[in-house]
Write a structure and sequence with these properties.
The structure holds two protein chains of two kinds. By secondary structure, chain A is α+β, with helices and mostly antiparallel strands. In chain A, the strands form four sheets. In chain A, strands 6-7-8-3-9-10 form a six-stranded mixed beta sheet, with helices on both faces. In chain A, a hairpin with a 2-residue loop joins strand 11 and strand 12. The two termini of chain A are 36 Å apart. Chains A and B meet through helix 2 and helix 4 of A and helix 9 and helix 10 of B.
């Protein structure tokens, strides 16, 4: 399980003089569902194309199963890609599409037809053998594209925003479908997406990327609960990112008020970024004999979101985003509190250009 | 039918009038003349006249030379169209522009220019003589006619091919490479089949005008080489035998229809169905 299957070493790539990937290092373990997540232009698709063999890095090497495949053309690699817009062969029917890779490898007719049956069953589209691609819906075409890739028994399946062109409901169904496929096939999935929800739902490991750099690698829980910098915190879910001061270990000063926290090792009186998820902000109504909260503020916006209310609270010069199942009308005086373990401390970036840049979407 | 649909149909009126006056009525006249003799009585003699040795020779020569020209056009255009579609947009439009630039000049003028170039004492031979090289003797031969046809009709092959190839999704090609196809297999299994509609349009736009031409053969073939087009033209202009000219035209039309049917058989997708 923990064997390194793909190892990207010091990969750099630029287009027209613009650096897309800068000295990227990343390894992918066997049987892992790994997601490259980031805004458009972050280099995630380029990374995938380098693994697939459609791009050659200017520097660095791609090691696959202990072998350097940096300059190997795509057709010699033991991996298959599912493209964003399906890329089915429009002049072939479904059967011929799925058989394409197997025919080239010179497999026997009976082997091929068995494989087609198996693959169509796996993606729940049996009976579609003789249909043409353009007679299928987007979701069906995408499932055929997956079937076409997996009949070749690749060790790794690369998926380039495969659900990007589908509508929300179908996308959610396909997410479960992909997890099931991954478990049934027992192979490595490398998934590229800009949709953080998709990444959190499906992945074993998420690689958050921005501007050609890896921002954080970790499990979905770790990425969500312990973002390493403001970019990750901002990109994954809603968050309140507040410039604060670390007074000493386990004590942080947020907007002039000291809060207990659980993080250590940031030094004394050091500037830090603090991330507080909107659902972790505890609101109580203020009245004269109840002042137990740390910070007092006023509810300035209120939106009903179904599961919860989304509120904005003006307090100590900061606009707090709060998700709560309790209802506080606009104008209510509230006090804000946060449990120590819900305060995530992050190092402030040391250089301006390292500062996690705004999301461009 | 609501009024909007009726109004839309009305928009077609000018075309229907055009169609009636310049296509259907002349076609009817061709059939009328072709199927009657000088006295106006019904006869199949004009059609049967194709079996006369000089007529059948003209027909087969025209078929052969047009076929050859079409093949040469495909062979020249395909690599060009592939190179073009791989170019950057800015370069691409410039090359396409250069390519269609000669088409802004009159067709007759261009063909006459070739006449001057190819003549025994023409431009090309003067240069060759000057360089002490053997002179070209292709004017007034079938080769000169093929050259003229290829030169004049090449853009009609390049443009549909280019159009068709550049529409092939790059990811479809990448998918084929991903599934194990090397460059040759990508070409034979993906690019070639997907460009069939372009080849079909190209063939239709080159073969048919080449088959019916009389100007190219007249200017570059001298008066010795008679294609079916020249024979028909002579019947109308010199012999004033409209009946025979029309009869031979009908035969030629049948051959064109046959050629379209044959090419369409190869075009399963039917994107360029001309019938």
């Amino acid at each position: 399980m923990s064997k390194k299957l793909i190892d990207l070493q010091n990969i750099s790539k630029s287009y027209d003089g613009q650096l897309v990937l800068d000295d990227l290092n990343l390894y992918i373990k066997e049987n892992e569902f790994i997601t490259l997540l980031g805004p458009s232009g972050c280099g995630k698709t380029t990374t995938l194309r380098i693994i697939g063999g459609f791009e050659t890095p200017e520097k660095g090497s791609v090691i696959f199963d202990g072998e350097d495949i940096t300059h190997l053309p795509p057709y010699k690699r033991q991996l298959n890609t599912v493209f964003q817009k399906y890329a089915l062969f429009p002049h072939m029917n479904i059967k011929e599409n799925i058989a394409f890779g197997l025919k080239i490898k010179g497999k026997t007719q009976s082997y091929i037809s068995d494989k087609i049956k198996y693959a169509l069953k796996l993606v729940n589209l049996d009976g579609y053998e003789n249909r043409m691609p353009d007679s299928l819906s987007g979701g069906q075409q995408q499932r055929i594209a997956i079937a076409r890739a997996i009949v070749n028994e690749p060790k790794v399946l690369l998926l380039d925003e495969p659900l990007g062109a589908l509508d929300l409901k179908l996308r959610q169904d396909m997410q479960y479908e992909l997890i099931r496929l991954k478990n049934e096939l027992g192979i490595t999935f490398i998934y590229v997406t800009h949709d953080q929800e998709e990444a959190l739902t499906m992945s074993d490991t998420i690689v958050v990327m921005n501007q050609g750099y890896i921002q954080q690698i970790g499990s979905p829980e770790k990425i969500y609960n312990e973002p390493e910098n403001a970019f990750v915190a901002d990109f994954i879910g809603d968050s309140n990112i507040i410039r604060s001061t670390m007074v000493r270990d386990k004590l942080v000063n947020i907007l002039g008020v000291d809060f207990e926290c659980v993080d250590t090792g940031f030094g004394n009186n050091k500037p830090v970024d603090v991330v507080i998820r909107p659902e972790d902000v505890i609101l109580t109504e203020c009245n004269t004999d109840n002042m137990q909260g740390r910070i007092q503020g006023v509810v300035s916006h209120l939106i009903f979101k179904g599961v919860h209310y989304e509120m904005e609270v003006q307090a100590n010069g900061f606009e707090w985003l709060v998700h709560s199942t309790s209802f506080f009308p606009v104008g209510t005086l509230v006090s804000i509190d946060v449990d120590p373990f819900n305060i995530q401390i992050m190092n402030k970036p040391e250089f301006e250009d390292e500062e996690a840049l705004k999301i461009d979407e | 039918m609501n009024s909007l649909q009726r109004n839309k149909k009305l928009l077609g009126t000018p075309y229907f009038i055009w169609c009636a006056f310049f296509i259907i009525i002349p076609l009817g006249m061709v059939f009328y003349y072709g199927l009657t003799d000088r006295n106006g009585s019904l006869t199949f003699e004009n059609i049967a006249a194709i079996t006369q040795p000089e007529h059948i020779k003209g027909l087969f020569l025209a078929l052969g030379l047009s076929f050859l020209s079409t093949i040469i056009c495909i062979l020249l255009s395909y690599p060009l169209a592939m190179i073009l579609s791989a170019m950057k947009v800015s370069t691409k439009s410039f090359v396409v522009f250069i390519f269609i630039l000669p088409m802004w000049m009159n067709f007759l003028l261009r063909t006459m220019a070739w006449q001057t170039l190819l003549e025994k004492t023409g431009v090309i031979n003067s240069v060759l003589t000057f360089l002490n090289l053997p002179v070209l003797k292709i004017i007034n031969t079938p080769s000169a006619i093929v050259l003229g046809m290829v030169y004049n009709f090449l853009p009609f092959m390049v443009l549909p091919l280019y159009n068709c190839i550049s529409k092939i999704d790059e990811n479809v090609i990448n998918a084929a490479r991903d599934l194990g196809a090397n460059s040759i297999k990508v070409f034979t299994r993906i690019i070639l089949p997907l460009s069939v509609p372009g080849i079909i349009s190209g063939i239709t736009m080159v073969f048919i005008p080449a088959l019916t031409t009389f100007v190219i053969s007249k200017l570059l073939g001298g008066s010795k080489i008679l294609l079916i087009g020249n024979i028909i033209e002579e019947e109308f202009t010199q012999a004033s035998n409209w009946n025979l000219g029309s009869g031979l035209s009908i035969v030629l039309m049948i051959f064109i229809i046959i050629s379209i049917i044959i090419t369409n058989i190869f075009d399963k997708g039917g994107e360029s169905n001309f019938l």
